[in-house]
């Protein structure tokens, strides 16, 4: 499903983002250049306040850059109108959040099927696929439960299933393990890695969870709104080894 | 291979109706508070007009001592019929105004509470128009429910009050059709109030960038 498998699924060119807070201007991103290949598992690491979440929002077409360009599948996001942007968010990108962000008043299956409803699928289609996805994340028998009746790990697994709903090319995960304990966090990481291998989905994850590093193909370190360095996994093992 | 982006489909109304109905049902208690404001305002309006309708139906058939009793109870006759006085109209306008402010306030709160939900919906591919439809439909349901309950309450209280005051003659000359008409238009009034209250909050919610909506603390 990734075509030739080597094209850039995300490309950022000189992306700058400035937030205005009253009189002050805060430069969250100061010219980020980044290319992410299809099928990669990328971790974006950096201390809080480094611009990590802002970068995440740029890649996810959730916010507009002040200057610079964001390409998703070689389409310039700034050229898209509201309908195309909604289509892109619905079909191309699956989002996973630190706070899960499930719709609280909907059951697990309703949460998972929502993106497919937005995509215009028929009821039979989306119910079947929804159950399939819940089975994939191991929650088939809890499909009628609402988020408050599920544990944190279970909620995040529902969120993973929801992110996969429309077979996106990219899964964007913002601190997916941030609100989970160690074991549950590891479960989610394993699940994501499994998906990236089995389905060839590009996984981009903002994190400061060291466990994420072991499964990442590349790690992008962000500091003060700039890409500090990009490391491949091989090289990474050495540096992590040194830390430990 | 030139990658393409398609346009998001607009959800059919049946789906929006279903989603908004379920959203409202899931937050029943919260929405009942908003609805209660409507019930009270509409009940007051319906009561005022129902009393005049009942009196007008009763008057031509009332014996002179009952007519005297009616007039001495403080109801004023203008050119042979009862109708709203400037004071009544002033009170109604005031109560509707207070109600409208209350509704806008309640809806703004409801929308603010749901910023994160709205942001999430937009991440999943919801169009701005879907968010607006969602809130407008919820307001329509609240308007219908509040309007129906309020006008029924108003008409009922008016009938019972007059029954107690002036006896069974009120029931014998019951202007059912007219009262139904009052109930109908006051329900419409509730819908109008509810919609007025929700439009601005819905517009704010729909235009928000999803990143901004997700950033709100919860």
From TrEMBL, chain A:
**Gene Ontology molecular function, alphabetical:** ATP binding; ATP hydrolysis activity; transmembrane transporter activity
- Has the keyword Disulfide bond been applied to this entry? no
What Gene Ontology cellular-component terms does the record carry?
membrane protein complex; plasma membrane
Q: What family does this belong to?
A: Belongs to the ABC transporter superfamily. Macrolide exporter (TC 3.A.1.122) family.
Superkingdom field: Bacteria
**What is the source species?**
Desulfacinum infernum DSM 9756
**ATP-binding among keywords:** yes
The cross-references to Pfam families, in alphabetical order and at most eight, read: ABC_tran
ABC transporter domain mapped to chain residues: 10-243
Protein name per UniProt: Putative ABC transport system ATP-binding protein
Keyword annotations of the record = ATP-binding, Nucleotide-binding, Transport
UniProtKB/TrEMBL annotation, chain B:
TM ranges are: 28-55, 90-111, 147-167, 179-203
Kindly state which keywords UniProt assigns to this record, in alphabetical order.
Cell membrane, Membrane, Transmembrane, Transmembrane helix
Return the InterPro entries for the record.
ABC3_permease_C, Macrolide_Exporter_MacB
List, in alphabetical order, the Gene Ontology terms for molecular function in this entry.
Answer: transmembrane transporter activity
* Keyword S-adenosyl-L-methionine tagged: no
Q: What membrane topology does the UniProt entry give?
A: Multi-pass membrane protein
Q: Which domain of life is it from?
A: Bacteria
Q: Name one GO cellular component term.
A: plasma membrane
What is its subcellular localisation? Cell membrane
Keyword match Nucleotide-binding? no
Could you tell me which residue ranges the ABC3 transporter permease C-terminal domain spans?
92-210
Which Pfam families does the entry link to? FtsX
Q: Which PANTHER family match?
A: ABC TRANSPORTER PERMEASE YTRF, MEMBRANE COMPONENT OF TRANSPORTER-RELATED
In the record, the note on similarity to other proteins reads: Belongs to the ABC-4 integral membrane protein family.
Could you tell me what this protein is called? FtsX-like permease family protein
Give the species this sequence originates from: Desulfacinum infernum DSM 9756
């Amino acid at each position: 499903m990734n075509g030739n498998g080597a094209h850039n699924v995300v490309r950022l060119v000189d992306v700058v983002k400035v937030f205005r807070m009253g009189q002050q201007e805060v430069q969250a991103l100061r010219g980020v250049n980044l290319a992410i290949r299809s099928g990669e598992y990328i971790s974006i690491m950096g201390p809080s306040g480094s611009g990590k979440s802002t970068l995440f929002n740029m890649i996810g077409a959730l916010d507009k850059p002040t200057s610079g360009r964001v390409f998703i599948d070689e389409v310039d996001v700034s050229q898209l109108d509201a309908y195309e942007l909604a289509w892109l968010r619905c079909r191309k990108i699956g989002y996973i959040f630190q706070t899960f962000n499930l719709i609280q008043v909907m059951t697990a299956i309703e949460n998972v099927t929502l993106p497919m409803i937005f995509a215009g699928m028929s009821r039979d289609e989306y119910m079947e696929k929804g159950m399939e996805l819940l089975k994939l994340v191991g929650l088939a028998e809890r499909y009628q439960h609402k988020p408050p009746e599920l544990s944190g790990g279970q909620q995040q697994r529902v969120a993973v299933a929801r992110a996969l709903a429309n077979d996106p090319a990219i899964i964007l995960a913002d601190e997916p393990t941030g609100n989970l304990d160690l074991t549950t966090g590891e479960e989610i990481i394993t699940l994501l890695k499994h998906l990236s291998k089995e389905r060839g989905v590009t996984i981009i994850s903002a994190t400061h969870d060291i466990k994420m590093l072991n499964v990442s193909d590349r790690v992008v370190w962000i500091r003060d709104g700039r890409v500090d360095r990009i490391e491949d996994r091989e090289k990474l093992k050495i540096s992590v080894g040194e830390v430990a | 291979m030139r990658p393409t982006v398609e346009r998001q489909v607009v959800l059919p109304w049946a789906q929006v109706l279903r989603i908004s109905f379920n959203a409202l049902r899931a937050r029943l208690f919260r929405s009942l508070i908003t609805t209660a404001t409507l019930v009270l305002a509409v009940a007051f309006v319906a009561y005022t007009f129902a009393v005049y309708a009942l009196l007008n139906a009763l008057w031509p058939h009332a014996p002179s001592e009952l007519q005297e009793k009616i007039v001495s109870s403080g109801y004023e006759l203008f050119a042979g019929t009862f109708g709203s006085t400037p004071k009544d109209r002033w009170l109604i306008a005031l109560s509707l105004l207070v109600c409208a402010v209350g509704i806008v306030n309640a809806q703004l709160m409801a929308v603010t509470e749901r910023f994160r939900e709205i942001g999430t919906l937009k991440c999943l591919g919801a169009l701005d128009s879907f968010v607006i439809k969602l809130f407008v439909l919820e307001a329509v349901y609240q308007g219908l429910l509040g309007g129906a309950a309020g006008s029924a309450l108003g008409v009922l209280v008016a009938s019972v009050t007059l029954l107690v005051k002036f006896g069974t003659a009120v029931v014998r000359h019951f202007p059912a059709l007219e009262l139904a008409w009052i109930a109908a238009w006051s329900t419409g009034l509730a819908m109008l109030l509810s919609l007025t209250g929700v439009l601005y909050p819905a517009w704010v919610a729909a235009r928000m960038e999803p990143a901004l909506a997700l950033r709100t603390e919860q």
